[in-house]
Design a protein that fits this description.
Shape: elongated
Oligomer: single chain
Largest sheet: 6 strands, mixed
Strand order of the largest sheet: 5-6-7-8-9-10
Helix content: 25-40%
Mean pLDDT: 92
């Protein structure tokens, strides 16, 4: 029986790389730059390519996984869709948050790893969801203190989650109330501050829409009709 090292020596890394890049180009209609390819072995049960869009930079890098199946087929999945859809997704989420707050900043991330291969450049936002899959977003919302005033933040998040569920947007949302004098320059780096009270008023509030399209707040499922 051949060892993994012997098997990989008989595989052409350049051919695998080109196969992956061709797959990406067909899915998204753009070109990509390969960074590093690791063939399957002890560390991974799949070939792992790091790449980034030619129109972007290495800060936009994502993973591509390729798996040789027992039936001889080669399955490819990637994490680029999360970056591809990010601007549109943030625009939709901003529209929902804007129903409650006038001044805010919003950032969404789809995490590391890969997403289902069916997600491509022709996919609409409301088509991302599919039963049995876990495609989830993490969204951070910074709301200026003046924009909150006497608002019920918890209630606003429940309304947001309801709107998200209507559009089948699965994900976790954290809302931070930002001190007025810190708002102009606030960004995600503030979350790493040694003393978050320098930037934020009170603790953050959160809500999530689960893969089962349930709404959870503070770790508990919220019963809401509609």
């Amino acid at each position: 029986m051949k060892s993994e090292a012997q098997t990989n020596r008989n595989r052409d890394p350049e051919a695998i790389k080109e196969r992956m890049l061709s797959h990406l180009q067909q899915k998204y209609g753009e070109e990509f730059v390969p960074v590093n390819l690791t063939l399957s072995g002890f560390a991974y049960s799949y070939d792992n390519l790091t790449a980034y869009p030619k129109k972007g930079s290495q800060s936009d890098a994502f993973e591509v996984w390729g798996t040789q199946m027992k039936d001889g087929s080669y399955q490819i999945s990637d994490g680029y869709f999360g970056k591809y859809i990010k601007p549109e997704y943030e625009a939709v989420m901003s529209g929902l948050v804007g129903e409650s707050y006038s001044t805010f900043k919003l950032y969404t991330d789809f995490g590391e790893g890969v997403l289902p291969d069916r997600l491509n450049k022709d996919m609409n936002i409301e088509e991302i969801y599919a039963p049995g899959e876990t495609v989830s977003s993490d969204t951070v919302v910074f709301v200026k203190e003046d924009a909150v005033k006497e608002a019920d933040v918890e209630a606003s998040l429940i309304r947001l989650a309801q709107k998200m569920r209507e559009k089948k947007l699965v994900g976790f949302v954290q809302l931070f109330v930002v001190r007025n004098d810190k708002y102009e320059n606030i960004d995600l780096q503030a979350l790493n501050a040694a003393d978050e009270s320098e930037y934020f008023v009170g603790d953050y509030k959160s809500v999530m829409v689960t893969p089962e399209l349930k709404i959870r707040q503070n770790g508990k499922e919220v019963e809401i009709d509609g």
